[in-house]
Amino acid sequence: MPADERSAVRRGSARASVPRPLTAAPAPGAVPLPAGLALRGRLATGSRRPETPRGSGRGGSGSRTPSTGRGGGPRRAYERARRAWDRPLTAYYVILGSSLLITVLGLVMVYSASMIQALNLSKPATYFFGKQFVAAAIGGGLMAAAARMPVKLHRALAYPILMATVFLMVLVQVPGIGMSVNGNQNWIYLGGPFQLQPSEFGKLALILWGADLLARKQDKRLLTQWKHMLVPLVPVAFMLLGLIMLGGDMGTAIILTAILFGLLWLAGAPTRLFAGVLGFAAAMAVLLIWTSPNRMSRLSCMGVVGEPDPEAGCWQAAHGIYALASGGWFGSGLGASVEKWGQLPEPHTDFIFAITGEELGLAGTLSVLALFAALGYAGIRVAGRTEDPFVRFAAGGVTTWIMAQAVINIGAVLGLLPIAGVPLPLFSYGGSALLPTMFAVGLMIAFARDDPAAKTALAMRKPGVRWKTMRRRVKKRSSGER
User: For residue 34, what are the contacts with CB-CB under 8 A and spacing of at least 6?
Assistant: First the structure.
């Protein structure tokens, strides 16, 4: 056999020895695929792993729980709550919702607690409720206006509000203009059933003016010097305290002192300076309490037990405890209070929390406390997340004001603190206290809206902006794409 034929036979046998892949015969009537598509299908089929039925793992059927399913236990619920709280508009909604709920619940309790008091004065049962409703309507307008104001306008209003408040507080001491209510000369008669207490607006004035002052000094890097931190903030605060104490209202003076300490703490006052101012204020408070028999009697009523003497000064404190104790878990029901029938003095003002505990029980009081806690925590969040020093000082001052006043009022009702005669913010009867407080809440809402992330989220809520954004995200597809 020639050499060429032998080499051809060897090549043919080598080809025959290579195993060919088995392919299924085409079905009758099927269209044969091109070579490239057939090869691609074989590669895809060869690289695919066989599917295993569910539940055939180590743990058997249903033994493995997906980590991203619904209802993954307490940890997943906590993570959801944390992510919801970290959203840009959370503080905005919490401040708005909690303040409105406190105000509405306060209106209900003012009506329930003041009916008997109004009838004793030969007035309609809705007398105090009507006045409080008018104040709440005006305060709602102030809150909406403050929430829409830019931060620059709030800073521009700081000095006018301070000067107007000082002028009104001086008018209180003028005979014939100022009025005395319950021994305190802190009221101005406006005509008809309406009166005004300028010292309540002094809290708002000190916060706005002090925040603007400290923000300007921080921009100039002057807060590292103690004299710039104290002057003129502390002298102006002491001037307001002096005007308040001329009328004998120590409760409002305590709240104003708490606001001053809050501003100094936010400004980064050193411990020695802070302790010095606190020590001086404590010494002045001890002196004022020691020289006043009325204040000494209030101090002695802390933790009172037993049946008090009607002529003694602890009658109100004791019956406040009785009202809370008789409420039980869920209370006696709205309007069914017994203590408001003459046993508990001031049931719709300073001791409205006691009537709330008697009629709504522990559940009602804890709900009020939860709303105040949410409002305070949201205020701390606004103050802690901003880069604007004015916003930080103002939001921190408002939060200090509302939380300190709530603690002093509720502590007095529980017998843990002396009776200071301050109302429960947004809850107790009193238009002079309600108006500046609602404006301050609107101030915090404006600060929460001014956050850059919150601005973006609010802009996305507009239908036009959201529709345009969704149209930009959707890509055009060709007619053959599925």
Answer: none
